[in-house]
Amino acid sequence: MAALTRGSLLGAAIHLAGVSLPASEAAVAMSVILIATLVMAAPRIGLS
């Protein structure tokens, strides 16, 4: 959770500073794919 908070704050600071990062859209897309893969691979919790 701390890493997510730090990453969000760092990203906001970079954005507000006006820094242009190459391939930033691709990095966001890859992080979404990675998180989705981790969620899909997590063990299922039975509700019954």
Short description:
This protein has 48 residues and is mainly α. The protein has helices spanning 2-17, 24-41.
Note down, in words, how this protein is organized.
With 48 residues, the chain is an all-alpha fold. The chain has helices at residues 2-17, 24-41. The radius of gyration is 15 Å and the shape is elongated.
Number of alpha- plus pi-helical segments:
2
* Uncertain stretches of 5 or more adjacent residues: none
Roughly how many Å apart are the termini? Answer: 29 Å
Main sheet attributes: strand count, strand direction, barrel closure: none
Mean pLDDT: 83
What multimeric state do the chains show? single chain
Approximately how much helix is present in the residues?
A: over 70%
Shape: elongated
Using the CA coordinates, give the radius of gyration. 15 Å
Quickly give the structural class.
Answer: mainly alpha
The helix/strand order is HH
Strand content: under 5%
Number of DSSP strand runs: 0
Give the SSE map.
Layout lengths: L1 H16 L6 H18 L7
Record keyword descriptors for this entry.
48 residues
